[in-house]
Design brief:
single chain, 485 residues, alpha+beta, OB fold (Dihydrolipoamide Acetyltransferase, E2P), BirA Bifunctional Protein, domain 2, eight-stranded mixed β-sheet, 36% helix, 26% strand, ATP binding
Length: 485
């Protein structure tokens, strides 16, 4: 079997032959009368008309029998068969086709439609044109790319040879279109906020750093648009949302990437209860639009988003699975419990971090049915409003299902003095070595001092889409960042 290098050299020679014959292997213009999908759908009427059509696509297979060449081509809307006869297009054109055309090449063909004796829809080619000569052979369409790393590194080959992968990204587009459609229908204003920031905020995450040459200042890539979006609420906009890229310099696993797409929304004059009702409708709409159904399979569990969502009290479920009462437990007791359970506490500084890591390891895996996880301790959420019934808890909810967190929202903290005090505590944790603790943002606190109305916010990322597909997040990204070979 010829090596890839030998096959490439052979195709380069074919490209040179085309040029010798005065044929450009990469012409600048192209004509198309119909898509293959349109031809297939309207074949009978188009065949009856007998008009010449110009179609195009990528050659998938090609086989010759004497003075005949059959080939299949695919334009992304369907696959169609072409037939070239030597005695109809001439020996020179037929020979050039036979000598230069390979699987993977893009062709344009002009001809009329007919049915073969076997009933195959076919175009009888009167003229053909090379549109783009492929210098490398495509992977076998039946075999595809089996190595996961190769699939992710060369996704363009994966989508070319695997229809399921190609359709995955069509569904992902529907996922974000449905999100945008719903929020616009609810009166939301789509906005854009800065990606480069002097102070990253809005989440507990380590940021990426960069440098702005013109201003000669060090900057961070945003870890969340939250604080900028809430500034817009201060500025008089009542319903704002953004769908954009987020950057977090944290670990990689099934649910985490360093750069990903996230939606964040902020609605003025509502609280977390009203936001939960809105989110339930949003997610059901997006799931149905993405999947065509309100149900899907995640591993061995059938998830039905149309069923009533359960409500889970954070304190109650924490006590159920750990035996710890968050109303009384101390930082020392949390640390002792974590160490007893084999949870590494070295990177988790402060009571809030310990609660969070224990919850993720010991509690969250038990949360299977879609639902809202409610009212956690104030220690783990520095931007949420305190619960009126217990000032040590915050009005936060998370969407949970099958042991995963799929979205988060809360009544936004609009008390500037409380917000400053929580930023101060975050700064203390940061100085103690917590790289994910939030920084003091004086400008944001100043904005709150001008007054922000009662507001609720919510966000989800493409992790939700990956969950719907029962895939890791990086499998649902066109070109995830990979370590160099």
């Amino acid at each position: 079997m010829a090596s890839l290098g030998e096959l490439r050299d052979e195709r380069i020679k074919k490209s040179a032959l085309l040029k010798e014959k005065g044929v450009s292997p990469y012409p600048a213009t192209v004509r198309r009368d119909k898509t293959v999908g349109e031809v297939i759908a309207n074949f009978s009427s188009l065949e009856a008309e007998g008009k010449e059509l110009f179609l195009l696509g990528r050659v998938r297979t090609c086989r010759s029998q004497g003075g005949l060449s059959f080939f299949n081509f695919d334009d992304g809307t369907g696959v169609f068969q072409g037939l070239i006869k030597k005695d109809e297009i001439g020996e020179e054109s037929f020979s050039l086709f036979s000598e230069t055309v390979d699987g993977g090449d893009f062709l344009g063909v002009a001809g009329t439609l007919f049915l073969t004796k076997r009933g195959e829809k076919t175009i009888a080619v009167r003229e053909w044109k090379m549109l783009a000569k492929a210098l490398r052979p495509l992977p076998d369409k039946r075999e595809g790319l089996h190595d996961t790393e190769e699939r992710l590194r060369r996704r363009y080959l994966d989508t070319t040879t695997d229809e399921a992968t190609k359709n995955l990204f069509v569904r992902k587009s529907r996922f974000w279109q449905a999100t945008r459609e719903f929020l616009l229908r609810e009166g939301g204003l789509e906005v854009e906020t800065p990606v480069l920031e002097l102070i990253p905020g809005g989440a507990d995450a380590e940021p990426f750093k960069t440098h702005h040459n013109a201003l000669d200042v060090d900057l961070y890539l945003r870890i969340s648009p939250e604080l900028h979006l809430k500034r817009l609420i201060v500025g008089g906009y009542n319903k704002v949302f953004e769908i954009g890229r987020i950057f977090r310099n944290e670990g990689m696993d099934r649910e985490h990437l360093q750069d990903y797409t996230q939606m964040e929304m902020y609605w003025a004059y509502i609280g977390y209860e009203e936001m939960m009702s809105l989110v339930e409708r949003l997610v059901r709409h997006v799931v149905t639009k993405t999947l065509g159904s309100s149900t899907h399979q995640f591993n061995d569990t059938t998830i039905d988003w149309a069923a009533p969502w359960v409500r889970i009290d954070y304190y109650e479920v924490f006590a159920l699975h750990t035996g710890l009462d968050l109303g009384n437990v101390t930082e020392a007791q949390l640390k002792a419990y974590a160490e007893k359970e084999g949870i590494d506490t070295g990177a988790h500084i402060g009571r809030g971090r310990l609660i969070d890591v224990i919850f993720k390891k010991k509690v969250r895996p038990h949360l299977i049915a879609p639902g809202f996880l409610l009212l956690p301790p104030v220690d783990i959420e520095p931007l949420a409003k305190r619960w009126a019934k217990d000032q040590n808890r915050v009005e936060r909810f998370q969407i949970v299902a099958c042991g995963s967190e799929l979205g988060k929202g809360f009544s936004e903290l609009n008390d500037p003095l409380d917000q400053r005090a929580r930023f101060v505590e975050q700064a203390r944790l940061r100085e103690a070595g917590d790289k994910e603790a939030q920084m003091m943002d004086e400008d944001f606190v100043e904005a709150l001092e001008y007054g922000m109305p009662p507001t609720a916010g919510f966000a989800y990322s493409e992790r939700l889409f990956a969950f719907l597909m029962n895939l890791s997040v990086r499998e649902t990204v066109f070109s995830p960042l990979m370590k160099p070979r």
